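# nightly structure sweep
# worker-07 picked up a monomer target from the shared queue
# config: single-sequence mode, recycle default, output format = structure tokens
# input follows
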Amino acid sequence: MPLFQTIQFDETTKILIWEITESLEELLSKVVLKEKTQKRLDGMKSQMHQRAFLSVRMLIQEMGFTDKDLHYDEFGKPYFDCHNHISITHSYHFAAIIISHEKVGIDMELQREKIQRIADKFTDYECDYLDPSTTEEYIKKLTVIWGAKEAIFKIRNEKGISFKDHINVSNFSLDETQTQASLHFDDLIKDFNVHYQEIESDNFEGKFTLVYAFEK
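# output follows
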């Protein structure tokens, strides 16, 4: 079963991770898509992207929803017509969703050396505690920071937010699983609880970082 992992965070929050092993045809046979979704799927050039897109539909089905229940606002943020909030992510052969009564965001990233080359594009405040000389730890921490900022951006979803200038992730240890972050944007100040963990699969080389955030 490609349902790779289920994380019951609390009574109203659940994270589901799907390992994408099926072919496009297999996934298509297991989901029912509304016309708007089918058109969006048909417009995707990458089959991997199509499979990830369909895997998200498999995940919401696991939670008792269907494609008809899932909508997107004008900025591309997913939502349900109910009290549940949803956030979606996919990276290579994984797709994941988080569903909660709280405002949430989720991101999943493959840990890659190349993130060091773009660190100055999304870190500033965090440079006070990051140590580039500890290469492996540096890469892992950068991946957590990027994931946290991506998750927070998905929650707020406001035009003009800069990862580098507006979102600060507090110092944290890789031996722990959570930290704090804040958003300072125009007159808006918001605080967030951030949770993170490593994900590995026998079917894929490399380690992934799963990050999800809750607005306080």
